[in-house]
Amino acid sequence: MQFSEIKGQEQAIHIIERAIQTQHIAHAYLFTGPEGVGKKKAALAMAQYLNCTGKAPESTQSCGSCPSCIQAQTGSQPDIIVLEPDGASIKIEQIRALLSKVSLRNYDSVYKVILINDAHLMTEQAANCLLKTLEEPTDNTVFILITSQIQNLPITILSRCQQIQFHTLSPSLIQEILLQHYPAQQSRIGLTAALAGGSMHTAEELLANDDLAQTRQDFYQLLAKLDTMRPAQIISWCEQWDKNKKMARTLLELGQLWYHDVLLTVMHSDSGLILNQDYLAELRTQHAAPEHLLHVLQYFRTAAEQLEYNASPRLVLEVVLLKTQQLISK
Ligand SMILES: [Zn+2]
Q1: Ligand 1 centroid to 143 CA: how many Å?
Q2: Distance from the alpha carbon of residue 189 to the mean position of ligand 1, in angstroms
Q3: Distance between Cα 66 and ligand 1 center (Å)
Q4: What are the tens digits of pLDDT across the range 53-81?
Q5: I need a labelling partner for 181 at 20 to 30 A (CA). Which of 166, 196, 200, 321 fits?
Q6: Spacing, Cα 16 to ligand 1 middle (Å)
Q7: Could you tell me the distance, in angstroms and rounded to a whole number, from the CA of residue 19 to the centre of ligand 1?
Q8: If you measure from the C-alpha of residue 50 to the centroid of ligand 1, how many angstroms do you get, rounded to a whole number?
Q9: Centre of ligand 1 from the C-alpha of residue 65, in Å
């Protein structure tokens, strides 16, 4: 893995490259940011670079062909250790086993690099056990903790790590990457990129999901006639998404795209800006005041936040659709 393979994270990569160029390597890093934006790839690139024996002086690229690079690329470099959650958590036994490997002499490498993926899933005991090691760093050992939920890491751990922030990817970048990797799916890529919420991981999941097209059709048919529906019909439609947080998230994104397009339509904007080009006819039947539509968009954004705070998917959808109905029927 090379830094140049990580797209859309120039700022984070720049900080890492500067650290390795000036040889100011911290003992512990925390790569933080949304899921599926390149944090683990960046950690693997850093691990590979630190142990590359064939790199050109001053270069931030590893050579890709020395024994360490070859092992790193196949995941078999013994001094690059990747710890993943065991089920729903990272347990103290895992951290103990990891630390016993850390205390061994390095095989052939300059650095021992330990990646802890989804570090927020460490149990309290696991985190405490790791903390002791972070407080007494060993030379030439680098910990890279990776998390999408920094708020769930103990402050004691945070204070021992240098944080590097990763950001969501732009829809246009996601579209570009998807087109490179899945050219056969070209017709679905624009919508997928718009729905991915800035995450490549989500984008690839959506692309692999054949149900999405059907769900989108059902949902847009509902939204197109929302103002004439009875509340009981809306509530009954929402029932099917009980406990399906992932799909509820997608529906809330779809809702924002729909009302974005309705807003453009009622304002007679250039129809080329409409995202749901295949629904132009339905969009043109929609009537609502632009100021109400702006409120509706805000409802959907708030609903998406509530969903992340573990509100029931079904309730979140019910509330946002009923409130939207009230407003656009005015
Ligand atoms: Zn190399």
Answers
A1: 20
A2: 35
A3: 4
A4: 999 888 889 999 999 999 999 999 999 99
A5: 166
A6: 17
A7: 18
A8: 9
A9: 5
Domain end marker among 182, 209, 236: 209
Question: pTM score > 0.85 for this model?
Answer: no
**One-letter amino acid identity for 201?**
H
Centre of ligand 1 to C-alpha 285, Å, is 61
Q: Which residue is listed with tokens 């690839």?
A: 204
pLDDT of residue 217: 87
Q: Are residues 178 and 319 in the same domain?
A: no
Number of domains composing the chain: 3
Instruction: Give the end-to-end CA distance of the chain in Å, rounded to a whole number.
Output: 56
Rounded Cα distance between 25 and 285, Å, is: 60
User: Does 8 share its domain with 155?
Assistant: yes
Using the mean position of ligand 1's atoms as its centre, give its distance from the Cα of residue 68 in Å. Answer: 6
Strands of 112-116's sheet, edge to edge?
80-83, 112-116, 141-147, 28-32, 162-165
pLDDT of residue 179: 93
Give the tens place of pLDDT for each residue, 201-246: 888 888 887 778 788 889 999 999 999 999 999 999 999 999 888 8
Q: The domain containing residue 219 runs over which residues? A: 210-328
Q: Are residues 83 and 176 in the same domain?
A: no
What φ, ψ does residue 112 adopt, rounded to 5°?
Answer: -100, 125
Instruction: Find the 190 Cα to ligand 1 centroid distance in Å.
Output: 37
36 and 144, same domain (yes or no) = yes
Q: What are phi and psi of 118, to 5 degrees?
A: 55, 50
Same domain, 8 and 138: yes
CB 138 within 8 A of CB 172: no
Asked whether residue 105 carries a pLDDT value surpassing 80, the answer given is: no
Distance 179 CA to ligand 1 centre (A): 30
